[in-house]
Please model this.
Amino acid sequence: MELVSRMMEGSLPYDIGVVSESTEHDAPRRRDAKTDRLQAIPMFQACSQRQLTALARIAEVVEVPAGKVLARAGEAGQEFFLIMDGTAHVEVTPKKQVQLGPGAFFGEMSLIDGGPRSATVVAETPLRLLVINRRNFSTLLTEIPDLTLNLLEVLSKRVRQAERAVAP
Ligand code: CMP
Model:
């Protein structure tokens, strides 16, 4: 079962301050607080208010404990993750692990090419994540076109790293 669905079910904790809906009346204030927090993420600092509002609508903030497997190599992937707090490790090969910290993202590859997860990603510490599902991922790139370049840069680095990891 997918992460966001489990969060919605209540079997995963999530950031009450960001996503809980106490009253209709509070909604604009909560959205402002969420856009403020999104703007504090370096990747979104250059975003306009309109872009941040669109992002706040499609992104969920999720908290997971250390040890949680967020992506498993070979399985289908449905979410894109951006680390807000904490660290995760990516098992690129059995011998090569990469640590990702605040501001780093993962899960983009399966959403871009529709293939299975290329690596297993595990929470090293408790994590606060921004999660965007497959359906909203293309909305994200349409709303914030500069992100595509950022994604391509990071993907190029990951390809180089992976090639170095398997080089004889
Ligand atoms: P995806 O294949 O969807 O799921 C596993 C994720 O691990 C992958 O997307 C990338 O986000 C991430 N990943 C794969 N290879 C590397 C790498 N060499 N360095 C950092 N992250 C990686």
About this structure: The domain at 17-162 is CATH 2.60.120.10 (Jelly Rolls).
